[in-house]
Amino acid sequence: MEEFAALIDALVFTRSRNEKLRLIAEYLRQTPDPDRGWALAALTDGLDFPAVKSSTIRKLMQERIDPLLWTLSRDFVGDTAETASLLWPQPDAPPTPPSVSETVAALSAMNRASVMSELPQLLDRLDPSGRYALLKLATGAMRVGISARLAKTAFAQAFAVPVEEVEEYWHGLAPPYEPLFAWAAKGEPPPDIASLPTFRPFMLAHPLEDSVVDLADYVAEWKWDGIRVQIVHAGDETKIFSRGGDDISATFPELLDVLDFPAVLDGELLVRGSHQGGEQGGAASFNALQQRLGRKTVSKAMLAESPAFIRLYDVLLLDGDDLRERRWTERRDQLEKLIARLPAERFDLSQIVEARDFDHLAQIREGARDDAIEGLMLKRRDSPYVAGRKTGLWYKWKRDPLLVDCVLMYAQRGSGKRSSFYSDYTFGCWDGDPEQGAELLPVGKAYSGFTDAELKKLDRHVRSNTVNRFGPVRETTRSLVFEVAFDSVHSSKRHKSGLAMRFPRIHRIRWDKPVEEADRLSALKALIRD
Amino acid sequence: MLAPFSWIRPEPWGIHVVPADCWIDPARAVDRALVTHGHADHARGGHGQTFATPETLAIMELRYQTREGAVPVAYGETVDLPGDVKATYVPAGHVLGSAQILLEHAGERVVVTGDYKRRPDPTCPPFEVTPCDVFITEATFGLPVFTHPPIAQEMAKLLDRLAAYPDACVQVGAYALGKAQRVIAELRAAGHVDPIYLHGALEKMCRLYQDFGVELGELRLVADHDKDDMRGAIVLCPPSALNDRWSRRLPDPITAMASGWMRVRQRARQRNVELPLVISDHADWGELTRTIEEVGAQENWITHGREEALLRWCQLYQKRARALALVGYEDEDD
Ligand SMILES: [Zn+2]
Ligand SMILES: [Zn+2]
Predict the structure, then answer these.
(1) How wide is the angle at C-alpha B111 spanned by C-alphas B109 and B115, nearest 5°?
(2) Which CATH class is domain A402-525?
(3) pLDDT band with cut points at 50, 70 and 90 for residue A294
(4) Where are the membrane-spanning stretches (chain A) (predicted)?
């Protein structure tokens, strides 16, 4: 654990991406199997120990420290695991740190009852930095700024192998990835994944920004407001992966027995409804899809009410052939053919948006606001299907965000890097005429959209305009207007305002604007389309 | 009959010793000030008279360019103040010249610690426990998460990093008064004999320390040298110069910071520190609570930092305590 803890600490304090890559690569080269595989899984959030939760740590600490001292410490440090690592009573005996593998085995064996006695035994064997690494590993939230992509790149760099291959094999394997290390570090044959329903890296798009493309070279499709998924059938099994490669098959059981030939397909997962794209489109709003996401069990009623389907964008593999090197036009042909082999209530094709020229397309996109479509995708007609974001191949051209002027009501301290700043803002709109005594009702929360310099200024504003404190939250005077950008707004019973914004972020801070001139709830309600 | 300790009165801008009409570390100019040490939040200028150790007075002279009204008080010395108040200056172990002030009046003893620490420091004499009735303590690191590691361990971290990157330099952010000189003296104690480079803002204070007999070895100014001279060297600068344009003149600097706040990862990250060195001139939680036990006062008045947690600790251990709301003390002079 010492080397792993040292790696975690070094990663926390390293800004440079290259230096991070170097640190991880060096660790992977120097650490034996299976420790390095477990460490890699931990870095990429690939481990789950259901017995250990943030609440477990809090409970353990409650047995050891006064609750107020805990709360004050936790508030200052901004992170539960770190606070516990610092407060844990240092045992008299010198630490005898367990290996990463031993730690993983011990954590896996714990259950909700035994964790209360077994986790302390591990903590007693470590120093503060080791305890931090252990608690982060156990709760599955390393937060050291390592994306899965970065870890894979580091792996590729450590053993001088192509990163695309690493990525592809990776998803077919489980921690501690011994066949992956055997292949990369020891020159053994690559893991065989052809017969496994594994995730293939997605092709992603760049924002179009202000560029203009020639429609002779690019084709346009709607960008649907669902979730991007990959459905894979191999070896008699179907799986559905989210954009990040998470297996979300269990959430959508109705899609698991409808694809019966070997294929890897890319599409948008939607639920039935008439909202998106009118009657023809047949998709419900994102709100309806939201109801189904994140549920571990799906009720019959829900399956009947909001059945899911996939609107196909692309085909990566088909009947044993890898089509990713082919042009988009060729893959599209294959896609249009294969759709006939699939049941229409579960699959349809993402239609091409026909336009005379770019200006015409821009007009069509403008009209998309009413259809609650996220925007347009522009794909180069001759582009292969390549992992990640390659410049010039695919663009996303989102519709302009909606804007509303809101008043700051509450601010909360951020976490991580922002733990000493009030960086999460709750804002509201007037429920009537503010001159006639109307009240503000909270309509959303945002913690992005401002620069570091603005954050400092906002933090100062919050501190000097506080009227109430509730733990890490401060209520402020009604004194500041935010111009808030958001993608859409939906009705919601959970909120007092009766609505919920999607992706709200601070667009501009209106230091100049009188709060009475902020928007009313009715203006926001008029934008609801459910 | 007056209530106990009514002769000493905490006001928002300082502690008022009523019968002597003098103030301890006042945040505004007064006729008579008793100053614990030279940090700017304690030693302000413009007082009629300033009672302080000779070292503190020299530091104040460096900052305010005047010795007017300076009244030197040596460690262990007792001065008689009007209103039958006696003040004795006792080492606080915080920085050069730092003192606790023991006040005696009407058979009651009050100790004002100013800032203090209990760890050894080659640049100043160690803290002395002074039993008293009222203990007015600082609480800068008054949270149980603060345990300062042994300084030798932090020096080893610094020297290891320097050895691993011989073509780079390590720039250490350290406060100009106290921290910078302690880091240098500890580096010397750890056997580091190479010249140490200084940001211009640290030079005068280092010279002052040397004039008072603190050995700091060979010091050079960054401004007098080329980039290449500083490869493999330690460079000290004020924290404000870290991540500033100033550091462009350094060869591939690794950013370090010497401060007790570095114990908390996010604090280090906020400052973009790559090598956090947990070195503090203040008492950590263990020292704060141990000291309260050792002085055994009837009452503990807590100020200057995170009073709430220390107050809670006193409550849990059945010690009388209250928090003073003094203004003007910065929470980052560490
Ligand atoms: Zn001080
Ligand atoms: Zn201070």
Answers:
(1) 180
(2) mainly beta
(3) low
(4) none
How much is the pLDDT for A148?
78
* ipTM for the predicted complex: 0.94
What is the pLDDT averaged over residues B318-328? 82
The Cα of A83 is separated from the nearest Cα of chain B by a number of Å equal to 7
E-strand spans in A177-304?
203-204, 206-207, 218-223, 227-234, 237-242, 263-276, 283
CB contact burial A185-194 (16+ within 10 A = b; e otherwise): beeeebbebe
What one-character DSSP code corresponds to residue A247? B
CB–CB of A72 and B308 under 8 A? yes
pTM: 0.73
What is the location of CATH 3.30.470.30 in chain A? 203-398
Sign of the four-CA dihedral B50, B54, B58, B63:
negative
Contact by Cβ (8 Å): A524, A499: yes
C-alpha closest to that of B199 among B232, B162, B239, B238: B238
Q: Could you say which residues from 125 to 144 on chain A have a Cβ atom under 8 Å away from some Cβ of chain B?
A: 132
B318 contact partners, CB below 8 Å, separation of at least 6: none
CATH number of B8-145+282-323: 3.60.15.10
Helices (H) and strands (E) in chain A, counts: 19, 22
CATH 2.40.50.140 domain locations along chain A: 402-525
Residues from B contacting A (CB-CB < 8 Å) are 143-145, 147, 263-270, 272-276, 306, 308-309, 312-313, 316
CA distance B262 to B254: 15
Write out the two tokens for B11: 């006001």
**What is the mean predicted confidence (pLDDT) over B147-163?**
96
DSSP state of A341: G
Strands A473-476 and A402-413, by their bridges, are antiparallel
Interface test with B, best of A8, A73, A83 (most B CBs within 10 A): A73
CA A329 to chain centre: 31
- Residues B233-261 pLDDT 10s: 999 999 988 877 788 899 989 999 999 99
Residue-by-residue DSSP string for A98-115: PPHHHHHHHHHH--TTTH
